[in-house]
Amino acid sequence: MVKEFNTQTELSVRLEALWAVLSKDFIIVVPKVLPHIVKDVQLIEGDGGVGTILIFNFLSDVSPSYQREKITEFDESSHEIGLQVIEGGYLAQGLSYYKTTFQLSAIGEDKTLVNIKISYDHESDIEEKVKPTETSQSTLFYLRRLEIYLNSSA
């Protein structure tokens, strides 16, 4: 049964700038903001919209060595993007389903609220190896790194 974990964070960046790096420029930006984890991101299939498949290749000391993701939601008007892991990554660590959805909304001229929904399921009822509270910390870390990147690029 798919479970959900929700969290949110405020970032001191303009909505448009954050949306651009989350939805369009992440192939270039992710290795820059997570250089100690991600070697590169490759577009395998698609045009950046729903159905697009990406592969995140991690550095040699990160296990598993890659994560393949599919964009399952993409709504430019509501600034929402959903990425589902379809191979490697969290699926190699005991999860049978893992999806992260980001929904952005402006809360001022230079602030953005990011609502994060993590949907997940385990392969079995055996002790949970991957906990959504821990994976959400990774997601929040990534968003903070994007905030730093965008503010230093401005």
Automatic annotation (TrEMBL):
**Which GO cellular component terms are attached?**
cytoplasm; nucleus
Q: Which family does it belong to?
A: Belongs to the BetVI family.
Write down the CDD domains for this protein, in alphabetical order: Bet_v1-like
Record's protein name: Bet v I/Major latex protein domain-containing protein
| Organism, as annotated | Sphenostylis stenocarpa
> Which InterPro entries would you find in this protein's record?
Bet_v_I/MLP, Bet_v_I_allergen, Plant_def-hormone_signal, START-like_dom_sf
What range(s) does the Bet v I/Major latex protein domain occupy?
A: 2-137
A GO MF label: protein phosphatase inhibitor activity
